[in-house]
Amino acid sequence: MPAADLVTLSAVELRRLIGGKQISPVELLDACIAQIEAVNPAVNAICATDFDRARDQAKRDEAAVLAGDDLGLLHGLPCGVKDLEATAGLRTTLGSPLHKDDVPEKDTFMVGQVRAAGANLFCKTNTPEFGAGSNSRNPVWGATGNPFDPMKTAGGSSGGSAAALATNMMPIATGSDTGGSLRNPAAWCGVVGYRQTPGMVPNDKSSFGWSPLSVVGSMGWTVEDMCLLLSSQVGSADADPLSRAVPAVEVLNLARVDLGSLRVAFSADQGFAPVETSYRPVFDRKIDAIRGFFRSCDEATPAPGGLDRAFDVIRGLSYAQRYRAQYEADKMKLGPNVRANYELAAAMTLADVAWAHGEHTAHFRRYAQFFKNFDLFITLITPMSPFPWETLAPMEMNGQKFDKYYTWMGVAYGVTMSGHPAIALPCGVDQHGMPFGFQMVGRYGRDAELLAAAYALEQAMASNPETARAVPDFAKLRTPVPALKSIVTAPPSA
Question: Among this protein's residues, is 157 annotated catalytic?
């Protein structure tokens, strides 16, 4: 098989070919590196790399295959790691000049799991500074462009992973999600991203271990690819009080699902979130294209309550804890999004926190009650088409001005606050020809059911051009876009 064709194969197929001694991990890695060298200058998705060390590992992986050794689930698969996750021996900057030269001595728990499963962690993927924002740009590496239009954002904060997957630079990549950071870039780049029930994938780097808001997880071209990576990440860790042992088989062997037996609810705005006027008809059109697959498909949503303010407070707690010392020492060394988050949190009272925790619990219970009448909930992930990456964040929509940079992402964080699992599924393109994706939400703790339904729906949508996954025009990605690095003010040392 020509090396260039390897990067067009799914992760599941590549792993099968490696295990069958039909392709070498060395040639696969070289194909991915060649794709990065050819395409990354147009989208700037990749951060730190260590290709020499990765080639050494690929040779060891090849030797293990030839020797007939037991192979891990991800053996020989090149994998990108979001630049918020510590990777032993590979620079981890968090997108911040404060950490631009940091080289961790050990992996986070999740990264260690992926490495132990045999993945070749050959590069880092771009993110906003400290992951704050749905636009993957920072002063260390610059901005990540969308593979369908590099002058527009790839989303965030897992934008580098999503753009790298969409352009065939790697078959799998890690991500993380608080207010939509796995789902938003997946939708805008035409790939799959999954926010699992909190605790399914241990997150030992969080200083707020009892909070279910932030999760780490997986991305892939397809549901099956994403599940292959997820199966290596699940488990329990002493450092994460919410983590719980989940058998890998629950996400690796997807059950067969009859879509015609499922009761589905849908809502564009979940009853509270802003949605751009021109984007609602796109969502409606996609729903019309898939509603016939289900037993029923009705417009409905859990009552939102005081969700915006509750999210402000619950989210703000971690910013108050993590960034107080740096803010008080020299706040200008923090980016504008991080400063805004800290200042919002610093103004909160104990009464605010008490109320928000009560509302957070009430929102979970509304969702739990809602799922007594429905099996799935389909809603938007993003309320608009990708915006230019030069814009830090949309600050108004439909004439409504926002006082916070993330208010426009209510459709994503509304689901976050519920605690329920959600998967981003590609579904054709929007009114501007950019990738469109919706999120499908399932019952709390019933991830295997949601993933199986998502896999079935993905297969059903693939035959319709209106709903099939969009693919970028690679010919247009052969031209570098130097402007993507124009915001770099503190370049990393060599």
Answer: yes
